[in-house]
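Bumping my old thread because nobody answered last time. Still need a sequence for this structure:
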């Protein structure tokens, strides 16, 4: 159930899931990939005694905001 919720409400997981689906993966395979990613993130947070921070996750994945998004955040 955590996988389904993260696909629906977490923007990074939703993007990851839709990318896999667009590449022709079956929905079950894409869900299992999201599940594995959640487990890896949870284990890393536990191991390093940290809290989840979306900005750190975006930086680690190489996700950057476009200039137009930065202007909207600043304004």
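Sorry it took so long. Here it is:
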């Amino acid at each position: 159930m955590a996988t389904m919720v993260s696909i629906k409400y977490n923007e990074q997981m939703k993007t990851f899931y839709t990318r896999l689906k667009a590449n022709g993966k079956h929905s079950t395979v894409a869900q299992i990939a999201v599940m594995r990613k959640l487990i890896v993130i949870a284990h890393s947070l536990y191991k390093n005694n940290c809290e989840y921070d979306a900005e750190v996750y975006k930086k680690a994945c190489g996700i950057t905001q476009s200039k137009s998004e930065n202007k909207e955040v600043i304004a």
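The two ends are 37 Å apart (CA to CA). Let me know if any region looks off to you.
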